[in-house]
Design goal:
Length: 664
Amino acid sequence: MVQSLLALAPTLLVIAFFLLGPFNWSRHRSWSRVVTCAFVAAIALRYMLWRFTETVLPYPNDGANFYWVWFVFIVEFLAFSEVVLFLILMSRYVDRSAEGDRLERQFFERDERELPTVDVFIPTYNEPLDVLERTIVGALALDHPKDKLKVYVLDDGRRDWLRTFCEGRGAIHVTRSDNAHAKAGNMNNGLRVSSGDFIAVFDADFVPYRSFLRRTLPFFMDDTIGIVQTPQHFFNVDPIQSNLGLENLWPDEQRLFFDEIAPSRDGWDVSFCCGSCSIARRKAVDAIGGFPTESITEDLLTTLSMLNRGFKTRYLNERLSMGLAAENLTGYFVQRERWCQGGIQTLYLHNGPLRGPGLSLFQRVMFLPMSWLVQYLVRFIVLLIPIIYLWFGALPLYFTDVADYVSNQGPLLAAYFLLMFWLTPTRYLPLVSTAVGTFSTFRMLPTVLSSLVRPFGKPFKVTPKGSSNEANVFDAYTFTWIAGFIVVTALGLLINIVPETARVEGSFSAIAALWSGLNIVVLIIASLICFEKPRRLLQAFKLDEPVDVDGVEGRLVSLSLDKAVVAVSTETRFKSTKVRVKIEGFAPLEADLRQVTQRRGDITRTGDKQRYYLHLHYDLRGFERDKMIIKLYTGRYSRDVPDIDKIAVSVNLLLRAFGRTRTA
């Protein structure tokens, strides 16, 4: 009993530190971040010293198991290195909104005629009109003098219908004779036909808010700023949210990076361009010879090339655009594999972090693609260790006793999880985050390995979006891997429960059993992501505005480009299914009333009348449709996920896992 309490003491001390310290401090103050990250780093260093001196060095050279112990330790050391870099990075945080307010007042004090000219680049290859129209219309609506704003649609698909659409809206349609160097080559062609002082870049599926230029341009009063990057927000759910059934409970997968990591990188002056939703100084782009074409991630390489020349990237963490997240798993992996391969490619380039001139040692280290190189290997080994032990009896370390293991491993896990809860209170849950990483491992680890061997072996591939993007209904490849690991792990446990077939014995068996059980739970959650859900092409926004339907007053509760949902307080009988809808700012719309629904228990504030919901469908054309695009997508509305309801997420996942298991 006493030994057990002593083993738990370090973990309890870690918990006490967070309860008495960080959980009562502001997570955005530099001193609190430095103290907390230093504390966690000390716990991690204590663990690694124990691992090396007590569980690796004492292990006898007895053949294959000896090399397995060293291999596991090397992988763990790589994970430790990544964690240390993460802790250093997250020990700073900067919010530039107040600075942006001050700079905006100064910048726009000048005469309108003195404002700089801006070219908006929209590179496109195969995106359909239902994706492109929002971006083009939104870019043309930017709040900037019209004689100083030009929108260039850089069409590598060379489509006549797109040229016609651009001419009808006032955008400039640009093509070239070939598609050399993919997106980077396309934008370099745009440089040749344009002359603006600044270049804003939006991928074909991102719509800028009208205030985008007012908030970003003022930062360029500092002549050393080459690029200003803004976060990427989305008006649809990503496939992780959708397939796990967490659309309204769990934020999109990129929020951790854009909301937390990117501001910390900016605090260290190692922020980087993410391509879309950014704006660059033309003189800086010209100084590096245009957008680099050596890598398939031209945005990251543009940042490194500018750092070589003394230009910096700034990150303004404000929602200034909205776009399409990957709509299904095919698009999700096309996107991630491109990012991974591009990051690894920089290691081989003359202007990358290893060989690029003008970079400090700190910048070189912080631009190493450590996360891509390490995270998937670590997750794979975490799944493999209990299997190797249960089936072959191969220990991953020189094991003393459970108490020793708990007193060293426990504090590290507690420190890391509590740190993430503190740093990212609305963006992180250990079980879900681990399951998402595990799901990605089976496709991404081969990409990492192939990119190390043949970094330039795969060409640039566009992420499929919109109506031309055919959804997969089931990711059989990943599910097969996950199911295989579940079966092998579970059989390993069953074999060792029966004395006659048991292959292992000793104190580590209890830890291996717990480890295996956790792996199975994580794998089951990961397997849920493999089952695709149907998607909606035109996303609806929640709102609350007055509306008139054939003289009946109601409230708009949902609106998209093709449908409105109107709440009325009484059940209304209309003479026809064809109705006229009056929305503020629009001519009356002719709509089809296709459905009337009533939510159970939905009572108005007066408590005496139930609400009925009219589902109205319409077909907007021309400039009326453009007006609706501007209304919906340029800053008035957004799709927000509230703070994580940890209980709701857990219950939802358990119900889905149980239901999926029963029907399998």
